[in-house]
Input
Amino acid sequence: MSIDLEIQRLQTAKENIRIAIEEKGVEVGNGTIDTYAEKIGEIEVGGDYEQGFEDGKNSLYPNNIPIYDFRTFGGENIEIENANVKAYTVSLVINNASDGFCKGNTNLKSVIAMFPNATFGRHAFNGCSNLEYVKIDTSSFFDNGAITAFNNMFSNCPKLKRIDGIVDGSKCDLVMDNPFNNSSAIEYIAFAPLSIVKSIYLAQQGALTDEGIQAVINGLADLTGAETRTLTFHKTVGDKLTDTQKATITAKNWTLAY
Amino acid sequence: MIKETITQIILKADEGKVLTDGETFGTTVVLPENANQDKWYEITEKEYAQVTMEQGGE
Output
């Protein structure tokens, strides 16, 4: 290879290195290859983000998660600031966390969270504008935790599509009327069967799949003999309900609105 | 053989109106037999838009 071609090759390689580093969020600018080498040390170690997201989403149990940017938080009043959670796929163990422990975190794309004790979920993921997937999990090592307050828990998450795991509303002591405010892309929420005990508002969730719709219906507690509660669906969803589904809802003493 | 009879009360809002009980809204409301249907009344779509704009939760 001629010297000119070799120089051109090295210049191209240098430019490719600059681009690769900047794609990892580190500004390089102009400089020598030694400068670039120093910048490599500023790259947050986290593995392949896209693969980590997919692996986190597809894993079944926390112990089996291929870990990319793994974080575990425990203790009281844990708050996760944007600056501290640069990772996009995290696994959280929340013990007695305060309200809004992930509120406004625009980095998060995929979260697996465990709630070992009854905790507030208020504003937990409110405003996580890039959040696409959440899994609420419980572990056999902990008492089966159930969240007591769901106010705006998943509100303002415009990209959130799926909430897997177990969403147990049986300990909810406040109305469940706005946990999904302005999160209209939601297709499925893994409600624990017969666990929804308070009125629930899903009027903005027109993207619920057939699976998602049935999960809601199965999640409704049987209120026979008790005060009736209200399930509000998006009109599109309501129009898709079968007579059997409507009958199931009212047989459990729920009022259906859409 | 099990026979089950489920009675529903179905309320449908007139054109341009929305049903509400003061907290819940819908153009169609399906009530279980023993529910209090008297608490449901109609509002205009404009009134509904105003109310939902003001709502947002704490």
